Amino acid sequence: MSDIHLVKLCVGADSLDDLLGWERARGDISYIHTRNRPTRWEELLDGGSLYWVIKGVILCRREIVSFDEDADHWRIGLRTRNILTEAQPRRPFQGWRYLKPDEAPRDIVEGETDLPPDMQRALKEAGVW
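RE: above sequence
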C-alpha cells in the first residue's frame, strides 16, 4: 500500500455531479495531463490515489495506475471509478500536493452516507457506488 497520495483541484467542476458526468463516457482508465511528473511517482503506483478537490472540498478519489510521458507533458493514468470520500476542506493551490494516508479522508461505504437518497441513486446510476 502506498505511503503517499496526490491531491489535485478539479478545475471547471462546480459539483461532484460535474466530475461524474465528464467521466461516464470513458473506459476503465482515463488520463489527466501535467507538465511535470511527481518526484515520488513510483510510490504512487503502489496503491496511491488522486484525491479530487471540488469547490474547496475533497469529495472523491481515483486510483493511480500509470505515469506515461507524452510529447511535452506527462499523463497520469487513473481508474475511471470514483470512490466517494468524507468531505475534507482544502485551501486553493496550484498543481498537486502530496497527501499522507493518515491525513486522507475516509472512503464512504454505501449506506454510511448522509447524502440525500436522490444523490445516492444518481451515484449508483453513474457506476460510482
